[in-house]
Amino acid sequence: MTLPYDEIHVEDLEVFARHGVFPEENRLGQKFVISLVLYVDTRPAGTADRLEQSVHYGEVSAFLTDYMHQNTFQLIETAAEHMAEEVLLHYPLVKGLTLELKKPWAPVGLPLKTVSVKITRFWHTAYIALGSNLGDKKAYLDEAVKALDEVRGCSVEKVSGYLNTKPYGGVEQDDFLNACLKLKTFLPPHELLDRLHDIEQAAHRERLIHWGPRTLDLDILLYDDLVMDSDDLIIPHVEMHLRDFVLLPLKEIAPNKRHPLLHKTVAQLAAEVCGGT
User: Fold this and answer.
1) Which one, of 187, 159, 188, 140, lies nearest residue 250 by Cα?
2) Active site residue 95
3) Residue 80: is its pLDDT beyond 70?
4) What is the average per-residue pLDDT within 50-59?
C-alpha cells in the first residue's frame, strides 16, 4: 500500500551516548547511528517556500541527539520507541515516522557491521463511545474526556453533545447519558483499551451485570479503518451500527466516516436505525 504522505529523510546521524545492558556501556558510552523517515505533507512548504510550513530536519536531528545524550536505556528497542514517541509529540506536522537505531559497536564478540532496531509509528484516529447511568453522569463523562486527553499519546479532538437515552439490553436501570469523541492517538488498539479500562476503574466501574448499570463505560468504536477480532477487542465495535445512542452522537462529530465492513457512512447508518433522525 502506498503511504499518503511525502517523506523527509535523515540518514546515519551519529551520536555518542550511554545505552546498553552492560555497566561499561552506560559508563563509557559508544557510537549509535540514527536514520529517520518523517512522513509529512511537504506541499504547503513546497509551494510557499517557507520553512515554518515544513518540519525542520536540523531541529529534529538536534532534538534526537540531545535526547540520546540526556537519557539512558538498556535496550535499543526502548530507546527507539521513546525517540519515536517524542518526535510525534513535539512535531505536530509529523504524521508518522520510521526510525532505525543502529549500534555498530555492539558487544557481541562476533565480527558484524552493526545491529539495529527499525520501527514505524503513526498517529491514528479512534472514535470512542462514552456512557454513564450512575451518580453524577455528566461529571463522569467530563472527567473521562479530561483523563483521556491527558494520557500520553492521546489528544481529544472533538466531543459530541451529551445525549439522554433509555437503557439497552433489557436490564431495569436508570437512563444513560451518552456521547462520542474523536481521539488522535499513537497507542495501538490494545494499549488504548488498557487506558480506557484504567479510566473506568478510576470512576469505580464494576462489571457485575452484562448491560447493567455503570458509572462509566468506554468503548472503542473505530480505529482508522482497522478490522480486528480478538478475544477481548473487536473493531469496529460489533453492535455500533445497531445502537442509536452510539450513532447519533457519532454522527454529530463524524457524519461522513465510513464503517470499514458495512461501507456506509455514520450518517447513513444513523438514518437506518433512527428513521432519518
Assistant:
1) 159
2) no
3) yes
4) 94
